[in-house]
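Reading a protein record of the kind used here takes only a little practice. The record below shows the convention in full:
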Amino acid sequence: MSTSVSEFKTRAAEKTGDLRLRQFIRTALRGYETARDKRKGAFQSWESARQAAAETKWEAVNHLDTHLESLVARLESRGTKVHWASTGEQAREIIAQILRDKKARSIIKSKAMTSEEIHLNQALEKEGFTVVESDLGEFIVQLRHEAPYHIVFPSMHLTRDEIRDLFQKELGDAPSNTPEDLTMVARRVMRQKYIAADVGFTGANFAIAETGMISITENEGNARLTAALPKTMVTLLGIEKVLPRFADLALFLPMLATAGAGQPMTCYNTMYSGPRQAGECDGPEEWHVVLLDNRRTELLADAEQRDALHCIRCGACLNVCPIFRNIGGHTYGTTYSGPVGSVITPHLRGLQEWKHLSNASSLCGACTEACPVKIDLHHHLLQNRRNASAAEPAFFERLAYQIFGIVANEPKFWWLVKKLGWLTQPLHGLVKGSAMDPAKAWTKTRDLPPLPKETFKDWWRNRK
């Protein structure tokens, strides 16, 4: 059993037993669902909007080479320095070299899941750089030395009392547990970090090929300060974030806000097209954009699952997933959790090492129904299972399915198995839950339903 599998099982068992946390997360997500459904009603047709968004992303991804060339040409025409990174290691080295060239020591960061994906903070801190997350949720989990719990809500697993105690311990200031007071504590600390920062680091929500712009959407305004105050700005984005036209944002910005947080529109939506130009009063003097592949082109080559690159990181699939609600984000052990993470992580980090994530699903299809760009998530989970099994079939699993195939296709064998089941069912009650229980993995957390005394076929035959 691989380390990732054993850790996943250990964490899952621990989190499913934490009834307080499960109830806390479910209550929070029920509030999200109410707000989201209310905002959906503001669209003339939410389903038509989903279809339009899916078609736009299809165009962007299936002509990615052309759109990337257009994006880069327009960015460079205004003085932006664009870097291509094939791997996470290469991206880390590019960013570290920029910091070395600028003789930087302090970096202020706005929210960027791509930086979590390549473990950027740890790499920079190892080299002696000071890295501070400016997003409030990211700042909180950074103080706890944790990864984000959720793509959109990094610290959703923490109560206000836990955050107050954390601020008191780490910052020496926590007058109360009210959100306003806690936010002001973080703001006072953060403003000093902005002033002292040598470099500002951002992610990106969208990149517009037509105009050569980077779109960043946020609720706190920290990304604006991150881009405006330091003299040097660095942006890291996955190559799949490209949209063909500026007008596409009229659809994607409200969809991202609605699906991600149940809002009509995110509070701050900012477009960046280059470093400070002559006559402009603010903005960075130098801007670097790092385009990250990190095995995305391998997923692009998979025609069956290519639409997983349509993901706009709204987190809607996590919010409706019954597995995520019970085991939480940290259990997955990877940057992208929930259904979309279970689909793309095996592509980004290795199918055999991470195939267990695709098995951690009820296949209920709620994720596919919630996805604003109509990614076929629950079918992709099945495809991952099939691909993993075909590549490295497990001997006993293959043997079990071969035997089942023989039994299921032969009525006499099927009748015999049913009879044996009826005969042995009382015996199972004697060993249930013990080491001798053949169904222990199932009965440990649920009941084994009793076999009916009469099949439907027998009932129908007797009835006639």
Remarks:
- The mean pLDDT is 92.
